[in-house]
Amino acid sequence: MELWSWFQRRLRSRENERFAGDLGQLVAGQIMQSPAGQTQQGQALAATANGIDSNTKIAHLNGNQWGFGWNAGILYELDKNNRYALTYRSEVKIDFKGNYSSDLNRAFNNYGLPIPTATGGATQSGYLTLNLPEMWEVSGYNRVDPQWAIHYSLAYTSWSQFQQLKATSTSGDTLFQKHEGFKDAYRIALGTTYYYDDNWTFRTGIAFDDSPVPAQNRSISIPDQDRFWLSAGTTYAF
């Protein structure tokens, strides 16, 4: 039986950018439907919103920060033909401090619109906490015949802790907020190895990777879905 553990650190460079798209038309419509739309100032702002270019940067946050975590595992070898393992990777929490800016007119901040905080192109401090999830994995290897072996694994990742991306200012005000709504996910894999002779070894496998992103929460920024993996390979020993 073997035990192992090691400490790890990660540098995350975070850069979030969001562009306007058709936001201008949506914001203009909301202003016109609100009491502010009945005022001259509100109507002027709605006209400004209608003129927002689709490539306007409505939110930009970047920063670098270290995060620390650890890995551990146990390997049990029943005999030379059968072994089993359990591994764990800890959660890594990263608190970003960076620069936030938005090209939107600051006047939009006065109307309670569901858009990122506008800075008129100016830069201010922004903070964002990112939790990278913990992961468990169990795996095994069994040589069932002198020429054949099977290997398998099941990994479970606690993505449900990632519910939103939220950046705040020094005073604690929300700069931008995006709902993610991830769920815990798993990955299951099964493979075979064929020992042709002392030199040639052939391997093949299949895996199913469960997406942590529910269908109703998929977006252009994270267009994830379930995946099947097929793999094959060979090695030659000299």
CATH architectural designation = Beta Barrel
Distance between the termini: 30 Å
The number of distinct helices, counting runs of at least 4 residues, comes to 2
Contiguous uncertain segments of 5+ residues: 1-14, 17-22
Q: Which topology does CATH recognise?
A: Porin
Please tell me the total number of domains. Answer: 1
Shape: elongated
Mean pLDDT: 81
Q: Could you estimate the helical fraction of the residues in percent?
A: under 10%
Within CATH, the superfamily carries the name: Outer membrane protein transport protein (OMPP1/FadL/TodX)
Largest sheet: 12 strands, antiparallel
What is the number of beta strands? Answer: 12
The helix/strand order is EHHEEEEEEEEEEE
* Structural classification: mainly beta
CATH class category label: Mainly Beta
Measured by DSSP, the beta-strand proportion falls in over 45%
- Radius of gyration, CA atoms, in whole angstroms: 26 Å
